[in-house]
Every structure is written in structure tokens, then in C-alpha cells.
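Incident log, support desk, overnight shift.

02:14 A customer reports that sequence design results differ from what the structure should imply. Their input is reproduced verbatim below. On-call engineer (initials T.W.) acknowledged and began investigating.
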């Protein structure tokens, strides 16, 4: 065998050894990766809290990447601030009211559902028919949480924010007037006080809108009571046509 042949055979042997060594290394590497995957999966299976944390971190990372790709400043806490409820999760009576109001006032059923549920809860607490609370909201603001009258009544229930600043202090300050739930809670408390002082629902509504016993209310009480009756019928399962919607965010403010 010539020197050239020996060199050629040696080079072939070296290349074969390198190839076999590389295969062994990568094979063991894949095996190690498989072991790691199995171990992680087992850890997640036996520790649900660890799995949930891992899934949350992964989802956060994926959403951040998506936000970067779309050029949007992401805020994953936005859903926590949203005033919305799936109407399908409400009791049948409340769901019927929510869908009817959604159609009549052309607002999404999810935020209306949240307001309906809150009205029923507050109604039970303050001994006020929840459909009356919703009727007041309908006439006052047509469910616009940012409505404001010329004299400064604000939000869903058109409460005078300056007059009731102390109540809004319990919700963080006067800007809470534009938070639907905060405005609703303050408004219902004002409505309860008015009904107590007025001696009846009708008397309370007159006080709420700023009209005294001898003062003209501009048809306010009649509008609220008419809407209240329609909502009562809807809640009772009756078919009620969509009447012309009230649009009165500039009504005189509640006292």
C-alpha cells in the first residue's frame, strides 16, 4: 500500500469516526431534551398551580409578541376594568330585560347586562324595583355613561357630581361619576333618599328630577313610569314592542 492510499484510508476512518461521534452526541442531546420535556409535563401534571403559572406566562409572552407585531400598546388588565357581563349567564328574567334594552337603546348587550345585574342587586338592597332603576337610567341618559346635562348632571343616572361629591369620595373621587357602576350606586342611593322624602315613587321621582310639589316636571315622572311599566312586562316574560326611546340627558338634575 502506497503512502497516498494509507493517507486516504486514514482520512476516511477519521471522517467516519467524526460522523459517528456527532450522531451519538445529537442522539443523546435529543434524548436529554425528551427527558426534560417529560419531566416538565409531569411537574405540570402534579402541580396545577405551576401549570397555571406557566400557561399564564406563556400567554403573556405570546400576547406581547402579537401586540408588538400589530403596533398596539398592550394592557392585559383592560378586561378587568370593563363593565360587561355575558347575558347568557344572567337569570332568565334579567337576560330578557338586558336583551330588550340592548335592542331599544342600541347598546351592546354585555355592558347592559352588567348594569341590569347591578340594578337587581341594588334594588334588593335598597328595596327599590330594579326595573324602576333601569327606567330612570333610560330616561336620564339613554344608557350613555358619559352623558352630561347643561347644568352639570353627569353619567348614567345624571347625578349632580358637585352636590354629591362626598358620596363619590367613597369611590375614589368625582371622576368616578363616569364609572358606570359607581354612578349607578350613587344614583340609586340618591333615588332612595328622594323616594323616602317624597313619600312615594312618584313624589321621589319629582324630587330626583328637581321638581317640587308645585313645580312642573316636564313630563319626567310620566316618562319614567311608562318605561318602568314596559320593563316590568318584559321581566314578566311578555312581548313588548320597542317604543320610541327617550333621549333626555339634559333633564333637570336630581336634587
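02:41 Re-run completed on a clean worker. Output:
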Amino acid at each position: 500500500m502506497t503512502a497516498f492510499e494509507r493517507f486516504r484510508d486514514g482520512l476516511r476512518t477519521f471522517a467516519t469516526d467524526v460522523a459517528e461521534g456527532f450522531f451519538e452526541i445529537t442522539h443523546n442531546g435529543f434524548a436529554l431534551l425528551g427527558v426534560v420535556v417529560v419531566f416538565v409535563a409531569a411537574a405540570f401534571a402534579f402541580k396545577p398551580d405551576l401549570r397555571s403559572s406557566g400557561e399564564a406566562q406563556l400567554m403573556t409572552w405570546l400576547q406581547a409578541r402579537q401586540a408588538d407585531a400589530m403596533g398596539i400598546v398592550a394592557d392585559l388588565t383592560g378586561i378587568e376594568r370593563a363593565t360587561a357581563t355575558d347575558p347568557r349567564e344572567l337569570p332568565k328574567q334579567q337576560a330578557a330585560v338586558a336583551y330588550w334594552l340592548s335592542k331599544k337603546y342600541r347598546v351592546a348587550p354585555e355592558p347592559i347586562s352588567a348594569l341590569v345585574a347591578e340594578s337587581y342587586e341594588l334594588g334588593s338592597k335598597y328595596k327599590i324595583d330594579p326595573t324602576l332603576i333601569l327606567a330612570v337610567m333610560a330616561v336620564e341618559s339613554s344608557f350613555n355613561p358619559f352623558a352630561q346635562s347643561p347644568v352639570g348632571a353627569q353619567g348614567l343616572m345624571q347625578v349632580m357630581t358637585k352636590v354629591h361629591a362626598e358620596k363619590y369620595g367613597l369611590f375614589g373621587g368625582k371622576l368616578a361619576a363616569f364609572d358606570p357602576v359607581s354612578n349607578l350606586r350613587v344614583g340609586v342611593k340618591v333615588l332612595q333618599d328622594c323616594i323616602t322624602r317624597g313619600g312615594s315613587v312618584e313624589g321621589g321621582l319629582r324630587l330626583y328630577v328637581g321638581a317640587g310639589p308645585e313645580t312642573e316636571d316636564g313630563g319626567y315622572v310620566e316618562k319614567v313610569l311608562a318605561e318602568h311599566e314596559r320593563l316590568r312586562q318584559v321581566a314578566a316574560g311578555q312581548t313588548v314592542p320597542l317604543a320610541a326611546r327617550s333621549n333626555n340627558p339634559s333633564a333637570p338634575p336630581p336634587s
